[in-house]
Amino acid sequence: MFLLKIESPRLERLLEHTAELKEMSVERFAKLAFVKGLRKIAESAKPETKTSKAIKEYILAHWESKTDIQMGRVLGYSFVYIQRIRLRMGLKRKKGPDTERDLAATPVTDLPLTSTEKRRKKYEALDPLIREHWQTKDDWEIGRLLDPVVDGTTVRLRRYKLDLKRKKGEKSAAREGLRILDQIDGLEFERMVLREGYTMTDYLKFKDLRCSRERLRQVAEQLGLKHSPEDREPSWLLMRKARELGNFNLANREWLTEKIAQYQSMATLAAELKIREPGLYFFIRSFKLFHPSFRKHGAETVNLMCTKCGKGFVRLKRWVDKPMQKTNGRAQEFFCSQSCSGQWNRERTRKGIEESSAKQLAWNQARLEKKERYAAYIREHWQNQSDVQMALALNLSESFLTKKRLELGLRRA
Ligand SMILES: [Zn+2]
């Protein structure tokens, strides 16, 4: 293009000196400096875009009261980007880890909270509670004092953070003296667990007991309380269903009989009771109630035999057809009552467990015998046969045989 001549001894000296520092030839360095300088000038001459101007204005106005994270959230940029611009503008914060946090602690109500802020807020409420109650209440109880509730594990972890550790084996005062045994009212227990449709797990929850179901079972045994599913009265399932559906009247035979008589269609009655039809039919079937509308659907009945007790019983055909369709006509098991069906299922489960454990036992036995056989052979022959020979005789791999031999402590010299 054209030649550039520098006619300044001072500039020439500076050029030479800097090129030497950079370990470059003067010509190459001069070219580089020229290009770099040009670029810089061109960049600064570029008109500022609208957005970058707005961002800078916002940062200038807020950098002292808001964190980069908060500004970034308002502007829709990452805090890294905001931080870079802020630093480029020469707005430096005081060094120290607390600055960002101090800023964040000043409430900025128009912004959604970050998860860190939320956590801090939670702990602000939790920490004093832990400090006050950790010696008298357990972690779950402390957690429940908060709104929203915090689970016990969180409380425990926080308590450890605060270095409020209980001595090993030491129990909270709340637990101490309040043995499960003392917290159970036998009459109430049997009423709930045998008649009112509560399971043991439900009972634990209802009484707010903190022990396992198995522990409760042991305690019930100790107290001589009946608790097993076999002991449940017929009303148990009815009460349970009724509670699920939110209407205890359903478990009352007289009430339901009267209701059914009042209605033309069971669909209407179900709708009136705000329950689904199968729910209503569960009670109708259990009480063996009758309604003229049943005939319309073809009140064909079938004679069935109970799989459990072998008693014959009658059931509406469509109640039999439905499960038949589901299983593609495979043989079905029918039970005369809920208790028969329950007992059958429990027996089957138990049998399944016994069978599989018997299989496991036989398998272990066979393995042990095999191992013994190998050991006996190796002990007898290891001194006059090589591992290869023994492996061949036992139909094993050589490496496996060597391993076995070493396991037996038979080392060759
Ligand atoms: Zn039966």
Give a verbal description of the structure.
There is one protein chain. The protein is mainly α and 413 residues long. It is built from 22 helices and 2 strands. Among the domains are: 9-45; 50-92; 115-161; 180-231, no CATH class; 342-407, no CATH class. It has helices at residues 9-22, 26-45, 50-62, 68-75, 79-88, 98-105, 115-133, 139-144, 152-161, 180-183, 186-195, 200-207, 213-222, 235-245, 253-262, 266-272, 277-286, 293-296, 317-326, 338-381, 387-394, 398-407, and strands at residues 301-305, 312-316. The N and C termini lie far apart (90 Å). 13% of the residues are buried. The model has no long low-confidence stretch (mean pLDDT 82). The structure holds zinc ion (ZN). Zinc ion (ZN) binds next to loops.
For the report, how would you describe the main beta sheet? 2 strands, antiparallel
- Biggest sheet strand line-up: 1-2
Rg over alpha carbons: 41 Å
Order of helices and strands: HHHHHHHHHHHHHHHHHHEEHHHH
Low-confidence stretches: none
Shape: extended
- N-to-C terminal Cα separation, in Å? 90 Å
> What are the bound molecules?
zinc ion
Number of helices: 22
- Share in helix: 55-70%
Beta content comes to under 5%
Which structural class matches the secondary elements?
Answer: mainly alpha
The counted number of beta strands is: 2
Mean pLDDT: 82
